[in-house]
């Protein structure tokens, strides 16, 4: 009887010994706070682009394709003669229009640059040569976008830290450490194109198109978990 009482007392003591450290660890672990903040910065795009297309229509497929080829060759030569303008060709297609019983051929040309004046002058000259304007747009340069993303990320992290300290103070706690941090700054690098009115295929001395940049917002989102303690 005495042996069983001693065994029961030892078992109880072991249970208490195992529970006390666990309770102490739970008390010291603190409170985990998870937050998310998004910051935005505004930048005015520096790169302008214009997309034009050469078209030809006629009864013979070889003739219309030869006309498109000739116009595109001349357009590329004119673009390469303008300093600071980058030119690239796009899709080329030829189709038979059964209702009109004619062939239609078309190829696009995209102009890009950081100086709007020469580029828009060139676009106007190409319109005068018979190319049709499909659209114009502005976009942030690579350097602009990188700097804007870094700035937005810095602001998001600062806002996140300030909010964590405010919440901790509200709870009567302090921010002990930053456990995890995730920073997401999406790269929306697609130029914003505006539709441009079509010009007559044989417009003479076409005036250059007009385009003005619109400020663009670059955002970054920071998500983190903080450890709060008394």
From TrEMBL:
- Where does this protein come from, organism-wise? Teichococcus vastitatis
Specify whether Translocase is a keyword of the entry: no
Q: Which InterPro entries match?
A: 26kDa_periplasmic_antigen, SIMPL/DUF541
One Pfam family this chain carries? SIMPL
Q: Which domain of life is it from?
A: Bacteria
Per UniProt, the keywords (alphabetical) are: Signal
Protein's recorded name: SIMPL domain-containing protein
Signal sequence, start to end:
1-26
Lineage, uppermost ranks: Bacteria, Pseudomonadati, Pseudomonadota, Alphaproteobacteria, Acetobacterales
């Amino acid at each position: 009887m005495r042996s069983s009482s001693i065994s029961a007392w030892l078992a109880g003591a072991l249970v208490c010994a195992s529970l006390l450290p666990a309770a102490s660890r739970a008390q010291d672990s603190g409170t985990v706070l998870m937050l998310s903040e998004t910051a935005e910065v505004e930048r005015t795009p520096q790169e302008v682009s214009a997309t034009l297309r050469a078209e030809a229509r006629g009864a013979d497929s070889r003739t219309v394709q030869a006309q498109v080829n000739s116009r595109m060759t001349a357009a590329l030569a004119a673009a390469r003669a303008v300093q600071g303008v980058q030119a690239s060709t796009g899709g080329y297609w030829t189709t038979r229009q059964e209702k009109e019983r004619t062939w239609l051929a078309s190829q696009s040309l995209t102009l890009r640059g950081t100086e709007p004046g020469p580029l828009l002058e060139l676009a106007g000259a190409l319109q005068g040569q018979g190319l049709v304007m499909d659209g114009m747009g502005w976009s942030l340069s690579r350097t602009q976008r990188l700097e804007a993303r870094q700035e937005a990320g810095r602001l998001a992290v600062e806002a996140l830290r300030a909010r964590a300290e405010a919440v901790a103070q509200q709870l009567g706690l302090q921010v002990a450490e930053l456990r995890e941090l995730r920073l997401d700054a999406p790269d929306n690098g697609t130029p914003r194109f505006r539709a441009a009115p079509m010009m007559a295929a044989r417009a003479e001395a076409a005036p250059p198109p007009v385009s003005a940049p619109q400020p663009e917002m670059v955002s970054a989102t920071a998500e983190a978990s903080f450890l709060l303690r008394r």
